[in-house]
Amino acid sequence: MIRKLRIGALCALILAAAAGGVRSDDAPKKDYVLGVDDVIEISVADHPELTKQLQIMPDGKIAYIEVGEIQAAGKTPAALAADLKTALERGRNNVQVVVSVITPKSLRVRVVGAVRSPGVYDYRRGMRALDLIASASGLTARAARVRARILGTNGEVREISLDDALSQPDGPQNPELAVGDLLLIDEVDPLANKAYVMGRIKNPGAYDLGDEGRGLLSILAEAGSPEPDAALTQCRVIRGNQEIPVNLMPALIQGKADDPVKGFILQPGDMIFIPRNESVISIMGSVARAGQYPLREDQPTTVMEALGLAGGPTATANPKDISVVRMVGSEPIVTRVDLDHIRKKKDFAMNIPLQKGDILFVPAKGEGGFKMSDILSPVTALFYLTRIGR
């Protein structure tokens, strides 16, 4: 009888995974490869408490209860499910895991400029520049009268000749695109006076420089606010083969009137690239919003500030035994933080600044703090991850 119930639960789980998430006509194929920003759902038969929706983090990993951080990007959902099954079966028998893609955000390419329908399009394996232009309903000018460039997600720029691509569709001037590529197409005309904003900003795209030119900050204001995970100190302006580093932090965040960025005038064809802030910390345990958070670039992020980002400790938290886990070489170093002591005694010596890769763990009431034995034991190495969101 129990076996029948488990089989029934598994069937229901699979049907739910098939019915939920993206529509069937939009659903990723079986060989879909997971990427950064994809939203997935992990379901485990007979264990509803293990069902979680997670977004793949910038480093390609997910943080899953009872498993910890595990690589997800670059794998198919079936391969990730197999890896999770192996990890979960260290403490359970015959676990059935299903990984479903809820929102496949990673498989996109973008085209802007001299096409009839600029915008974002679904990426297809083997897709070339001319395929993307065809998806955008074609050029608005002759191929010989446009300048085409491909901007990769890492900021690399490749210039191609669409005129040559049309004459040799299989040639190097019609290269295969990669996920996240942006195809920039400008009419070769003095009036085609545009600059481009890409990366971690609200409205990336092409912006008119006007007859008299425009400053960098003016274009950024039109493009909207930077994303919360934008690396403002690492912005760069790509001008031909030249890369000009630009620190946007003083002007945008600190409001410094004399910052030289305020006098930075853009030229036609300039590309402003704002990368993602890869300096992140993990906040886990009894907090309102466990997950990864970027460190501030303008000043250190302290324990109390980090807890604020995560919505603060929950009502069931034990604020007296918070742990900061930091890897020094191959050795984990655990620092105890008593949040009650900081608040009541106004003793901020414990309110230490966090570093890239730190783990901030808040235990629940009745639990001890993070122990070194939890790291040294292969079975309980990531015990604290089982307490996410409690």
How far is it from the N-terminal to the C-terminal residue, by CA?
33 Å
* Shape descriptor: flat
Give the CATH topology of the largest domain: Outer membrane lipoprotein wza fold like
Average pLDDT for all residues: 83
Strands side by side in the biggest sheet = 7-6-10-8-9
Detailed description of the structure:
This protein is 19% helix and 26% strand. It has nine helices and 20 strands. A hairpin with a 5-residue loop joins strand 11 and strand 12 (205-208). The two termini are 33 Å apart. Mean pLDDT is 83; it is low at 1-26 and 374-390.
Secondary structure layout plus pairing:
Blueprint: H1 2-19, E1 39-44, E2 52-55, E3 61-64, E4 68-71, H2 77-88, E5 97-103, E6 108-113, E7 119-122, H3 129-135, E8 146-151, E9 157-160, H4 162-167, E10 182-187, E11 194-199, E12 205-208, H5 216-222, E13 235-239, E14 242-246, H6 249-252, E15 271-274, E16 280-285, E17 291-294, H7 303-309, E18 322-328, E19 331-337, H8 339-345, E20 359-362, H9 372-376
Parallel strand pairs: 6-10, 11-15, 16-20
Antiparallel strand pairs: 1-2, 1-5, 3-4, 6-7, 8-9, 8-10, 11-12, 13-14, 13-15, 16-17, 18-19, 18-20
